[in-house]
Write a structure and sequence with these properties.
- The structure holds two protein chains of two kinds.
- By secondary structure, chain A is of the alpha/beta class.
- Chain A contains six helices and ten strands; from the N terminus they run βββαββαβαααβαβββ.
- Chain A is globular.
- Chain A starts with a strand and ends in a 15-residue tail after the last strand.
- In chain B, α2 runs antiparallel to α9.
- Chain B folds into two domains: 165 residues, no CATH class; 193 residues, no CATH class.
- Chain B is of the alpha+beta class.
- The relative contact order of chain B is 0.19.
- A six-stranded mixed barrel of chain B has the order 2-3-8-5-7-6.
- Classes of the chains: A alpha/beta, B alpha+beta.
- Chains A and B meet through α1, α2 and α3 of A and α1 and α10 of B.
Amino acid sequence: MVDVRAVEKSFGEGSGRLHVLKQVNLQARTGEITMLVGPSGCGKTTLLSAIAGTLRVESGEINVLGNSLEKMSGHALTRFRAKSIGFIFQQFNLIPTLTVAENVGVPLLIQGVSSGKALDRSREILEKVGLGPRWKERPNKLSGGEQQRVAIARALVHEPQLVICDEPTAALDAQNGEVVLELFRQVARSPERAVIIVTHDNRIFSYADRIARMDDGEIVEVKEQLHAQPPHFIHEHAL
Amino acid sequence: MIGLALKMLFGDTAKYLMLVAGLFFATFLIVQQASVFCGLMRWTTATLKNVGAPIFVVEERVEQVNETNPMRDTDVARVRSVSAVRWAMPLYSGIQRVRLEDGSFKTVQLIGIDAASLAGAPGRMVEGNLEDLRLPNTVVIDELATVRLSSNPKDPSKKIKIGDQFEINDVEARVVGICKAMRSFTGGPYIWTTYERALQYTPQSRKMLTAVIAAPVEGMSSEQAAAEIEKTTGLRAYVNEGFGSNPRDGGTPKGKKYGDFNTSTVWWYVKNTGIPISFGTTVVIGFIVGVAIACQTFYAFVLDNLKHLGALKAMGMSNFRLSLMLVVQALTVGVIGFGLGLLATSGFAMGAIENGQPPFYMPWQIPVATFLAVQLICMLAALMGIIRLGLYEPAMVFRA
């Protein structure tokens, strides 16, 4: 599904050169939620960008859904992202001048679907995330948790096989974070889909099937979790 | 994608209005000033429009109709002797002072035409009879004169009417007709009288003839006849066909550039006065204002939306489609700003036409050229946004 092998990435030149990814290896499987965790600046987001095809690496190989990203042209990579990857950003990145449904329909518009069909499909998926009645509203009328639910709907509207999430709970309080993660577990997870979440929020670790811990540009530990009991959001007072 | 682009544009009301306002002012300044300039240039040829003769024969060094060197009366006969000429008549044209009923003075453009043929008479009479011009001490005035020469221009009941009298250089003039005429460059009204009477109204000098107006014989063009007149008499013969027509690229016997008197007159004003620089400066300022406001505001609009545009880029929208969105947004504000600017200019034009001033003439080339200029401004603005967006890597969207 997602196979990262010996990936290296640096930024800067000369003495200021920063080695961000060092011989990174990682696998993410369909039907699973893989979390990339670690302290700030350890290279989680860089690795996520590389897997998402928004950043070229210097060496190594990244194979996503059977496609070797480093062998794809820029144009092919752009089309691949549009078709196969759903994105959930830390700051939601909803366009404030569009309605909730229009925001959700953007990935379909990118693929050339007509605006009418995109709107119908958006309303369907908004029903699934519990925001059906609010499809006409602007994002700024919604709470942070609701906005993240819109972002989830947008990431899933075109049925991608890989969903990339960058700190999905960073901008949310505990209550909204729990709602979003639960929704995520129900909606995003499917046997045909892989989900990769970058986070340093240890309250949500129990939702992962696999946790890859990063430190200083390296994967230092990969841990698989079996869910004997349903996962749950750990509130701060319980930590 | 177009819908998405437009929603993003219209959603940012402040910047959208700022962009439209900038392009509105640019359009208004460019179109209005260019049209007033064209109107003014048109006024310089008013005598040629009001005296509708096909050929104007003038002293050989004359380049424009408002500044002529007087000729001898015998030059009329010389022109008549040319075989290409069907008829040739004397013409007087000059600025004179009229003394009004209340003792004040006004300047007028006095035209003296041949009494027998009335060649060079106004084309459209509003009141009175043109033939009455043959009666003693009579004149035909234009509509502007009815107001300008009245004792109280603001009082419609005091307008000059047929039968009223005034003095031109202490000689009596009685109004026998009112006509339509284009305004003169100097702003004074036109007054027609016979050539002989015009000489009586004018302080005497050795040579008094302003021009000989003429027409070609049948089967010959004005251009051919004018060339024949020049060849035979050594005088300068211009055709009167309108600005831009009939240019002679330096090939005339006298080495003159323009065969048409309108064209020659307009170019004389363009080259010898500060008028084009004055209006041209405002037009350039209009363009610069448009560029400055549109580019700055559109760039700020792109920067404000960079996070969203970057997200679209990450989600798989190509640079080409994103650029297209920016172009659509820029062109949309361009069309709206241009439309509103043109509408405002039309309002100004209606006022100008109603008041008779300032001069206003908008040939189709002005709005077309302005539209292209405004779209060029928009393209520059869009290009700045496209360059900025091109530098934005999609991976940046992950950096909060």
